[in-house]
Amino acid sequence: MAEELFERVFPIFSRNFDKAGESSTEIKAILKSFNLDPDLIRRAVVVTFEAEMNVVMYGYRGELRLVITDEDIQIHATDEGPGIPDIEMAMQEGYSTATDEMREMGFGFGMGLPNIKKNSDSLKVESQVGKGTSLSARIRFYPHE
Ligand SMILES: Nc1ncnc2c1ncn2[C@@H]1O[C@H](COP(=O)(O)OP(=O)(O)OP(=O)(O)O)[C@@H](O)[C@H]1O
Ligand SMILES: [Mg+2]
Description:
Layout: E1 4-13, H1 22-33, H2 38-58, E2 61-69, E3 72-80, H3 87-90, H4 100-104, H5 112-119, E4 122-128, E5 132-140
Antiparallel strand pairs: 1-2, 2-3, 3-5, 4-5
Helix pairs in contact: 1-2, 2-5
Bound molecules: adenosine-5'-triphosphate and magnesium ion.
Residues 50, 54-55, 57-59, 79, 81-84, 90, 95-98, 107-114, 133 line the site of adenosine-5'-triphosphate.
């Protein structure tokens, strides 16, 4: 069993583009304080930022949970929201339901979920339409063990 070294929950406020990304910035500082490998930190920050932005853009409310164990960094994002009707489609590069307003702010390229996938060693996305979505990503310290 992995030993849990750190856990913290960050609330995410839907549609709050001013505060969006703050949790990711804080998470980066926490990971740095653990003296983790810069490449692992970079990957974890991509995952947290993209997961956070998806909740800001599509969820009604949600939270980001960061867990650091002796084996991995885990990022869990859960929201109450519209859910994702077709997860396989949502995982495709370029697929996006972002509004024009979101695109004007520089989001909505349909790259968030594919980038989360690319930067994590394991990813689980579960969703119930009309209820919400949960995403769990793990970045392992020793991926080949
Ligand atoms: N938490 C969520 N709740 C509801 N729908 C979601 C959620 N996360 C993603 N989606 C759906 O999956 C699509 C693809 O997400 P993805 O993050 O890959 O792209 P995007 O957010 O549209 O654009 P980008 O991430 O490049 O800014 C979204 O457009 C949206 O339809
Ligand atoms: Mg996104």
